[in-house]
Design brief:
single chain; 143 residues; mainly alpha; Helix Hairpins
């Protein structure tokens, strides 16, 4: 029985370790995505300023249209990237919760196994004490 719990503990620890690794990777991916989103939003903001400057200089309508179109594309891309970043954050949080649950499972199983070990030791000590008392009682009755 004890061996079965040792195997179960190893399996739960492996699952926990895998969950922690997945959580870390998802967290890193989310951070990279967040940084990229901020860069895109910064570029879009800069392009808005450039569009204003192009309009103030009185450049051609084609230049104004091209600049505005590119700015629109940048904002659209930044918006899509922000949505993906939100999804990555949700996914990262889900994996973190899974890792925490698996960690709690490992701790619970370790605590259970420690309690069982303690109970077995206590029972063995009681049996030994009883055996000593029986042996002592048997010697007294023979004398």
């Amino acid at each position: 029985m004890n061996r079965a719990f040792e195997w179960m503990l190893k399996l739960v620890e492996l699952r926990r370790d895998r969950a922690v690794q997945q959580s870390r990777r998802a967290q890193q991916e989310w951070v990279r995505s967040q940084e990229f989103t901020q860069q895109l939003q910064g570029y879009a903001s800069e392009y808005d300023q450039q569009w204003t400057q192009v309009a103030q200089r009185g450049d051609t309508a084609l230049m104004l249209h091209t600049t505005a179109s590119f700015g629109d594309n940048l904002r659209s891309t930044a918006s899509v990237q922000a949505q993906e970043t939100d999804k990555l954050q949700t996914h990262s949080q889900k994996l973190l919760q899974q890792a925490l649950q698996d960690t709690r499972r490992v701790e619970a199983l370790q605590n259970y196994m420690a309690r069982q070990q303690s109970l077995r030791r206590a029972m063995a000590e009681r049996r030994e004490q009883k055996q000593l008392e029986d042996d002592l009682s048997a010697r007294r009755s023979r004398s």
